## 1
Amino acid sequence: MNAFAALVARDIRIALRQLSDTLMVIVFFIIAAALFPFGVGPEPNLLARMAPGILWVTALLAAMLSFDRLFQNDYEDGTLELLVIAPQPAWLTALAKITAHWLTTGLPLLVASPVIGIMLNLRPDGYGVLMAAMALGTAIISLVGALGAALTLGSRRSGVLLSLLVLPLVIPVLIFGAGAVEAVIGGFPATQQLLVLGGMLLACVVVCPWGCAVALRMAAE
Amino acid sequence: MEGFTGTGLACIRSDRIVFAGLDFAVSSGDALVLSGPNGSGKSSLLRLMAGIAAPAAGKINWQGRPVRDDPEGFFADLHYVGHRDAVKPALTVRENLSFHAALRRGDAHIDTALDQVGLSALADLPARLLSAGQTRRLTLARILATPAPLWLLDEPTIALDYRSVDRIRSAIADHRAGGGIVVASTNVPLGIYDAKTVDMTAYIEGNHTLWGDSVDDYSAGDSA
């Protein structure tokens, strides 16, 4: 557990010292979402109708920018070899990297999303469920993305390959995440969608760190 | 047999047999030096020994038990220093060492280790400011910060000045006096006394591929 905390603390510390990498993801999120009013026209009703979908799609694309460097530095400087032969379960090491990734990417996206909601004229009753669904959704994206990052580690053009691998896998998150917000705005409860997201999160917590650990071991060889 | 042993080890890298039929045995307090020209498989053998890569054939035993049976217990007993330094430029010297110590078991002695490699005065500097030799010393401080009976060192003296080489030599001697085992690869004489030697040239499979073609024929066929 000591090693788990040390790994999370180290990744957060590096993220804070190299703040531009973290900010780049958030700035991309805001700029990409800001393009929509220019593209489809600034009509408030139209934007309000599209807001949940735009928020989820742009958050997903912004998160993709962060995965190529998740394991890349550790792979290049030899830290990955040492993580693989550290005396604790490899899935715990992978889970520590994923936790740090969520805290440095998922959480900032979560915090920025209501700001973009205001910009896109999202209805006031949608914010509570938007935050809840985003909290679950970004965690799932971190887990699935880390698995993709570990699988593509060491291959050429891994950033593109990673997106091709991960984006189709997170379509369910997009459907239920945007669906939850739309349901609440339409006057229905969003319990079902949130429960499905919660279920997907639990499944990913079981499968992804384990798969990630196997892929990292193969990459270190 | 107690100690660290390997029998019939083979290593294959992208269809090429690097070495085959390699045996080694080191017991408590002993040292093993791997010698041989560049590309003879010294680093590959150390990576097999550390459990980073799996051998294509053969067995490795630690204290009489196959390492495959209890990898975590084996990993807890070893320190591996590869040819890459695993130093994060954004973190300070002390933060780098503390992180690696936290990954290992046992009490960490960060300040003692930094003192031993002569980096105490630089402890709070970002590691990106270190020279190549200082970075290497920080890497070697890892093996002094937490206790482990088995040291696997890949070219430990690379980029070091003669004073640092002396420090490493005495650290290795102390470790052996305490019953520890050292396996080191080197191109230059390390000055480790009574060390056994594995000469990698004896195990090179004549640059043959898995299919029996020599590598030269293979590449010629490839380009044709």
## 2
Amino acid sequence: MGDLLFASATAFWLGILTAISPCPLATTVAAISYVGRRAEHPRLVLLAGLLYSAGRVLMYVALAGALIGSVLSISQISFFLQHHLNKILGPLLIVVGMFLLDLLTIRRGGPGMSAATQKRIERLGLFGALPLGMLFAVSFCPISAVIFFGSLIPLAMNYQSTFALPIFYGIGTALPVLIFALLLAFGAHWIAKVFHRISKAELWLRRATGCIFVGIGIYFSIIFIFLAR
Amino acid sequence: MMIKRTLQIVLLLFVAASVSFLIAKEYAGPNAFRSDQPAALESAAAEGPDRIVLYYFHGSRRCHTCKTIEAYLGETLTTDFSRELEDGTIAWLPVNIEEPQNQHFIALFNLTSSSAIIAEIKKGKIERSKNLDLVWELVRNKPVFMEYVRNAMKEFLKKEDGDG
């Protein structure tokens, strides 16, 4: 029991190391801006933060399960994800950014979209934090691949833990976004009050998030698609 | 309105260009991550003398830490093993693992990411190898990093002397 507790703490620490290493920084910034764009509604920020973390946890559990319980080659999966995922990330972030900037819109039933439909789409945007977390979780860079495939997976194999350790690891990797969401939701109610006072704050936050997504998307496209050999 | 429209078109064109470029590149070159490619280095080693090779396997994406690791590895060899490098006992070989002719190394050394591997090559075959898996942990402390690599290389060389 004590052993598993120690392993869980190690997995959590490995997750934190992943989160604070420099190469996933761009995706963390994108995630924080996505989660925080509804800053005037602290509850929604908290929910988005939790959904983002859940997305990461889900993906790591699925990946650990697939690797531990099967004959899949850790090496091949690691390099496949490092090679391919980062390449689709650029164009995808630009498209999401364009939606946030209203440069692309989903039209349902013409220009006179009902309030209910608008609300549904907004909710869809909130739940977008879940797939965002899933996608960012498996967009491995060299350091995060070393930590996940080289340290976490062997640790999970050792303890035959396909759930607990990847869950702790996933929470660790989402910690910056979670802390940000918790701070905004509980510790900084005044921020929400300020936002309530500033009219159009939501619109500007959404635009800022859109710009960050488009910027990071262009950066990833240049690095992983145009400049990569 | 005009700016919005222009931005929309420019970004969509950029996305389309990225996706087209990506597809063209994937289909133009040999398939990614096939491990049945000819073993370029093994065949090269077969032609050369027996030696100890310090590999640094990296991807096309060169993160700052990856570049630092490569620089420190190279520096350790040129500082402490210059004689062996000159007489060919030791070779220093950074390898891009994403190039098709190098992808067999992934399975050969069980790599999961950028890695430093010491390998002894005898008669064109890899006799034994060691993954210097602490390089990622030690990279923030250059003297400790270099000492770790130096000791690992010395140990490897000692065993080779013992074998001979």
